Amino acid sequence: MSGKVGWYLEFVDLSYKPAKDDIVCLFYFEPEAGISVKEAVGRIASESSTGTWTTLFKMPPRMKKLQATAFHIEGNYVKIAYPIGLWEEGNAVQLLSGIAGNIFGMKAIKNLRLIDATLPPSYVRNFKGPHHGIDGVRRMMKVYKRPLTGAVPKPKIGFSAAEHAAIGFETWMGGFDFVKDDENLTSTSFNRFDERVKLMAPLRDKAEKLTGEKKSAFLNITADVETMKKRADLLHEYGWNYAMIDVVVAGTASVMTMRDHCSDLGLAIHAHRAMHAAFDRNPKHGLTMQFLAKMMRLIGVTQLHSGTAVGKLVGSKREVTAVADVLREKKTNALPGVLLDQEWGRIKDAFPVSSGGLHPGLVPDVIDIYGTDLVLLVSGGIHGHPKGTRAGAKAAMQALEASMEGETLLEKAKRHSELREALEKWGYMKTK
Ligand code: CAP
Ligand code: MG
């Protein structure tokens, strides 16, 4: 072999100062045996921007201006800056194809994890973000101070539309704001979407009349985009103000399309994250939940599942807090190994959604972690109440009231039998 084959080191410049409108990414990386740190980071920068595996005969001068630069290495962490010109305006999918694309499969890199990216104002400007924002949802639901509450009929799939609606009614009557479809319930032979939408609407109206409160549901429209549009139209026709999408499996492009369609109809988007753990669970590889949350806020979901730290699914307190910050704050500051700086400009905020193995005994912990700008989902933890769904929802609302008033659950339970019975069954058990 003669001559230079690779040119990865040209993508490393430790004296480079990122330009104001560069996109800067933070990666965790581990080189494969025999690959130097510099070559590894050069390969990451190269493959995610203008590089290829070999030197080429001739390149137009423009190339140089478009190439990414690995400019800061600290242990197994590297920061890479990408010129703004590399990226299409308003196309989040293209960004992912670059900074979260081929690079995860390179043989030369043993592990690679995209932790966060600073998106400059000139990039963020081309996105619409959430239509409602936290305040808009609160006005729509007429709930101004406490977390919003919801539950999925459980077990997660198998009820008919009529059974589902009846459980939903009990959930609303127990004091909850929302009834939610589960991630794997869309339109099945035994529970068609259209039927569910139609049967639940009069029960919602009845519950609103009986309680004097606004009631709503996250009905799962997930399917191909054309079907999702039709389902969103039906939701609007029947007076619903939300649509639910399994945003990871549906994909960024379809969420972007549906954000516009739903906004035209005034529908907020509840984003379920089923499948996220396939790429964010391994702490050394894939991408983080906080980065996924950033993309989802950017492309305009109203709220996104973000973990519990104390419930049955993975997600540490540190991760949960980082995700909540990405969704809710106007600006986030760098937190080593977790977050980079981010300014959101005119992009509205989004609600985090805490869910998964929660019951009344865990509500104070969740409120402690998140505060009150939160959508709290307690599903098995209300339907499993010894006296049933309505009593379960009441118990969860009592736990919420106690947490907000600074009272212990035991004190509150002295005056409320529903909470007492819930504590007798589950106590303060951390679920698995
Ligand atoms: C919770 C849930 C949610 C998970 C999703 C379930 O039910 O409906 O889908 O919380 O995970 O199917 O497990 P329970 P995450 O309240 O009965 O556990 O919120 O972490 O994305
Ligand atoms: Mg579920």
How does this model look, in words?
The chain is α/β, with parallel strands linked by helices. The protein folds into 2 domains: 6-124, Alpha-Beta Plaits (2-Layer Sandwich); 133-426, TIM Barrel, CATH 3.20.20. Helix content is 40%, strand content 16%. It is built from 18 helices and 15 strands. An 8-stranded parallel β-sheet has the order 7-6-5-15-14-11-9-8. Strands 2-3-1-4-10 form a 5-stranded mixed β-sheet. Strand 14, helix 14 and strand 15 form a beta-alpha-beta unit. The N and C termini lie far apart (57 Å). Residues 152, 154, 156, 182-183, 273, 305, 307, 312-313, 355-358, 377-381 line the site of 2-carboxyarabinitol-1,5-diphosphate.
**From the 3D coordinates, which CATH architecture of the largest domain would you assign?**
Alpha-Beta Barrel
Tell me the domain tally: 2
What's the average pLDDT? 97
Record field, number of beta strands: 15
